[in-house]
């Protein structure tokens, strides 16, 4: 989620997921990012 998103839909901040290896693959609405973790 973007930092200014409503808290009732909070799933985590994008930088936390990208540092864990997730990639942004799309958007769901204007503030919600769709992320994927590539498996090896």
Summarize this entry quickly.
With 40 residues, the protein is of the alpha+beta class.
Query: How many helix segments?
Result: 1
- Strand adjacency order, main sheet: 1-2
Oligomeric state of shown chains: single chain
**Coarse shape:** globular
Terminal residue distance: 25 Å
**Beta-strand proportion:** 25-35%
Keywords for this entry:
single chain, 40 residues, alpha+beta, two-stranded antiparallel sheet, 1 helix, 28% strand, globular
Account of the 3D structure:
This protein is of the alpha+beta class. The protein has one domain (7-36). It is 15% helix and 28% strand. It has one helix at residues 14-19, and strands at 23-28, 32-36. Strands 1-2 form a two-stranded antiparallel sheet. A hairpin with a 3-residue loop joins β1 and β2 (32-36). The longest helix has 6 residues, at 14-19. The protein starts with 13 loop residues before the first helix and ends with a strand. The model has no long low-confidence stretch (mean pLDDT 82).
């Amino acid at each position: 989620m973007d930092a200014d998103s409503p808290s009732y839909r909070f799933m985590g901040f994008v930088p936390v997921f990208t540092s864990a290896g997730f990639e942004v693959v799309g958007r769901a609405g204007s503030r919600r990012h769709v992320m994927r973790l590539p498996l090896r």
